[in-house]
Backbone:
């Protein structure tokens, strides 16, 4: 995932230097609702659970006409628990997380009167920066990264709404829907345990994001 994002970053920066496309900078704040569910099915019984988390973030971005590079930080505004899939017993409680984020989205802008609309799609990585369980800070080690890092494929719609008469400053609302590309380590472990016991296991995760920011066009 990191290699994919790095290659896309190089492509976007190369586009500015080689093709001299329009470019600019900006920032936005966003809220995203993240949902996951998993289910273990055995011949005589089915177990299932779900996880719902809200995040609030602040990001800056570079826009190079047909692509956007964004980077920022986000933290959970709701807490979650992890439970034993068979018994429902809480294994880890009151979990809160903070992530550093890095993403690249391709976009295709077109004008609708004075407004620029752009469908967009691309990848974002959420890299765990800190996390707490039950009010206690835990070390961000390799095991924590395998549990909490998230990789997403996002797609949606954004707009640039002109502000003032300069033609350089825009208000930028956007909405995105994301599909998880990786599974946390604890989900992989649960899947292995269920299948070893003769059951089947399924996991789904997605998110919905809405944001509002400002964009200043330089070129």
Residues:
């Amino acid at each position: 995932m990191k290699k994919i994002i790095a290659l896309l970053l190089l492509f976007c920066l190369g586009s500015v230097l080689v093709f001299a496309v329009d470019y600019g900078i900006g920032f936005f704040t966003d809220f995203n609702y993240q949902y996951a569910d998993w289910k273990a099915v055995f011949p005589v019984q089915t177990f299932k659970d779900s996880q719902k988390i809200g995040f609030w973030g602040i990001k800056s971005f570079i826009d190079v006409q047909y692509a956007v590079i964004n980077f920022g930080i986000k933290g959970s505004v709701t807490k979650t628990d992890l439970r034993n899939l068979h018994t429902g017993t809480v294994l880890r409680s009151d979990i809160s997380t903070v992530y550093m984020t890095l993403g690249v989205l391709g976009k295709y802008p077109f004008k609708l009167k004075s407004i620029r609309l752009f469908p967009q799609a691309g990848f974002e990585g959420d890299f765990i920066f800190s996390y707490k369980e039950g009010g206690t800070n835990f070390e961000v080690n390799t095991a924590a990264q395998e549990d909490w890092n998230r990789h997403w494929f996002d797609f949606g719609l954004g707009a640039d709404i002109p502000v003032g008469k300069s033609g350089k400053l825009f208000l930028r609302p956007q909405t995105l829907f994301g599909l998880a590309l990786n599974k946390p380590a604890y989900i992989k472990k649960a899947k292995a345990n269920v299948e070893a016991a003769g059951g089947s296991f399924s996991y789904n995760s997605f998110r919905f994001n809405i944001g509002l920011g400002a964009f200043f066009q330089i070129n």
Remarks:
- DSSP finds three helices and eleven strands in the chain.
- Residues 11 and 17 are 10 Å apart (CA to CA).
- The chain has a mean pLDDT of 85.
- The radius of gyration is 20 Å.
